[in-house]
Task: structure prediction
Amino acid sequence: YKAQYLKAALLADDEKWADALVIYTDLIAQTKDIYLGPLAMLNAAVCAENAGDADKALALYNQIWDDYGNTTAVAPKALFNTGRLYESKNQIDLAKAAYQQLVDEFQNPEKGTDTEYAKLAKNRLAAL
Result:
C-alpha cells in the first residue's frame, strides 16, 4: 500500500490530480482499517478539489468524519475544509455547522485538543 500511496503523492506533486485521485480512491477501500485509510481519503479529497470537483471533495471530507470521527489526526483538517467548501458554495449554514463542530470537538485546551484548525474555524465563525 505504501508504494501506491507514494506513487499517488508523486503524481499529486506533479499536479496530475486525476491520476493521483484514481490511486487514492483505490487505496481508500484497501486501507480503510489501517492508518493509511484516512490519509488516502484526505488526499483524494484534495486531488478532487484541485481537479475542480468540489462536490466530490466535499463528499470525501465528510466521509472522513463519518468513517473515523475524531479518532484520526486528519479530522480537524477535513472538517475545516468541509466548512471552507460549503462557504465557497455560499451554503453558509452548513459552513457554520462544520466550523462549529470543529471548534466543539477540537478546541479544548484542558484535553490538549486545541488545534490550529479549531482556531481557524473559530475565526471563520466570527467572520460569518
Q: What stands out?
A: The radius of gyration is 15 Å.
